[in-house]
Amino acid sequence: MADSPEVMNIRQASQYLGVSPDTLYKYVGEQRIPAFKLGNRWRFKKSKLDQWMEEKSNQMEAKSKKKPKAAVKAAGQL
Known about the structure:
By secondary structure, the protein is of the alpha+beta class. It has one domain (7-77): Multidrug-efflux Transporter Regulator, Chain: A, Domain 2 (Orthogonal Bundle), CATH 1.10.1660. The chain is 63% helix and 13% strand. The chain has helices at residues 10-17, 21-29, 46-77; strands spanning 7-8, 36-38, 41-45. Strands 1-3-2 form a 3-stranded antiparallel beta sheet. Strand 2 (36-38) and strand 3 form a beta hairpin. The longest helix has 32 residues, at 46-77. The model has no long low-confidence stretch (mean pLDDT 87).
């Protein structure tokens, strides 16, 4: 979605992220994703979503780098 607007509604953000609107509402309710209300509607800034995805990606990379060491250590204890 290269032409995504800077501020997206729930439908646009769910398409941009590749998740269902229900999942996005769940994430918003759990404060797991950056969002704000404009009136009674949730809005999402594309730049904030991109930053959030980058942070999540970095966390996953860090976890995957740690897993092999833990697996090797666990295998050595068997």
